Amino acid sequence: MIKIAVLCSGGDCQGMNACIQTIVNMASVHGIMVMGVRRGYQGLMENDFVELTRESVANIGHLGGCFLKVARSEEFKKPEGVKLGHDNLVKNRIDYLIVIGGNGSYRGAIELSELGTKVIAIPGTIDNDLFYTDRTLGFDTAVNNAVSTIDNIRQTMEANDRGFIAEVMGRECGHIALNVAAAVGAHSCAVKEVPVEISDVVSDVKQCLSKGIKSPVVVISEACEFTANDVKEAIEKECGIECRSSVVGYVQRGGAPSVMDRLLAIQSGVMAIELIYKGIYNVALGIRNNNVFYMKLDEVYELDNEFNKVLYRQLRNLHNLK
Ligand code: ATP
Fold first, then answer.
1. Is 280 part of a structural domain of the chain?
2. Is residue 61 lining ligand 1, measured as CB closer than 6 Å?
3. 76 with 44: CB under 8 angstroms?
4. Is 304 designated active site?
5. How far is the CA of 212 from the centre of ligand 1 (A)?
6. Mean pLDDT of the chain
7. How far is the CA of 273 from the centre of ligand 1 (A)?
8. I need a surface site. Which of 23, 121, 134, 299 has the fewest CB within 10 A?
9. Ligand 1 within 6 A of CB of 83
10. Other C-beta atoms within 10 Å of 316: how many?
């Protein structure tokens, strides 16, 4: 009997539960036994395994968070940590390991594969910062959650002719910020991929105010060097309007996964088991043009951050900004 393990690493994201559930259900179709590793690589080093069955994962697919729990582990970044994790997989007679995680988790997966662990990696991070795939699990829901929060706050801002500055997640990149900004039609968007100063944001807002906009909306990424409150203070001082700022924060990670994330979770979970059944490993799954595909795990970092400059430009054109 084939025996596999699955773990989730890095930050939790919507779709992880749906993916775990699919992996378990699909594995049972092929008579494959699934062990869950609790708390990512930390749990792997601590030998924290639990058997997963159709019954134990029933009714988790529609939930955010992570049934197996996630962790970040500095210890696992050391060669001794990876070796310990690998040894525990051998001890538990695991034939394949499925890792669901982001950029950092993939590095850990590659290191395990170099010791002989047979790995399948599934992209799971709200940041969408694995550039070989169009999307990662959690990104679509995080964007939707931020958009709905901004829509709500915007109504009260408009009733009071106030400006609003929202800071959204994305530790290293501005994909969430750009997509949220475009979806709400923000009057200015600050991301680290496009060098902007606070004075540039103020200039965008001034131009929009001069065209009769009463409640400008600004979206900035948490990866920027300035905060939403810095922007609020600058706009109030330079433009003479009252503003409010808000860090959208963890609401982006919470709640049910969107349909897009559920589909990605299901497509990836099914493909992962099909690959294992065929004996294919050390690959990363991704989605391109709505189709799941796989590629060599150690080639995923060859693709650079493709920031969507076209979308960024279109958003500026929408408000006739230079
Ligand atoms: P998110 O996008 O949600 O933050 P992530 O996978 O990018 O997810 P990280 O904190 O970067 O999150 O990485 C998760 C874990 O992966 C780390 O805590 C560490 O245990 C492991 N990891 C990261 N880099 C390496 C590395 N170079 N070698 C071994 N393990 C690593």
1. yes
2. no
3. yes
4. no
5. 46
6. 96
7. 24
8. 299
9. no
10. 15
Between CA 75 and CA 72 the distance in angstroms is 9
Count of domains forming the chain: 2
- Whether 225 is in a domain gets the answer yes
Ligand 1 touching residue 101 (CB < 6 A):
yes
Q: What pLDDT shows up at residue 172?
A: 83
Predicted confidence (pLDDT) at residue 21 exceeds the cutoff of 90: yes
226 in the same domain as 96: no
Q: Which tens digits make up the pLDDT trace of 280-317? A: 999 999 999 989 999 999 999 887 777 899 999 999 99
Say yes or no: 106 and 61 in one domain: yes
pLDDT digits (tens, 9 = 90+) for 166-213: 999 988 889 999 999 999 999 999 999 999 999 999 999 999 999 999
CATH number of the domain that residue 157 is part of = 3.40.50.460
Whichever domain contains 24, its CATH number is: 3.40.50.450
201 shares its domain with 174:
yes
The reported pTM is: 0.95
Domain that holds residue 49: 3-138+257-302
Is 322 among the domain residues? no
